[in-house]
Prior knowledge:
4 strands; 28% helix; four-stranded antiparallel sheet; 2 helices; 34% strand; alpha+beta; globular
Amino acid sequence: MYKLWAKKINKNHLTDSIVVKNKEEIDPSEKRDKCLKEICRKFDISVPVWLKKHDLEFSQFKYVTFYPQDFIDEVDFDKLEVELIDDENKSA
């Protein structure tokens, strides 16, 4: 199972968090994109712009941080942290 944990941080305080799962048999990057869209839908925010730096950060650390400038619309937090907490590809 593929799980992403998203945390809204404002002034160094966790204001909201959510875990989103995906069990589909699709490419991991597609799972990531679908989970990110689900996170944004549940938080009622626009989907952030996914840049090459986000791709590198996520592939190396399984963790990515989005700042207000990564969103087209205004957001009510200082950063959105998204972490991969479960990936079916890792060995048990």
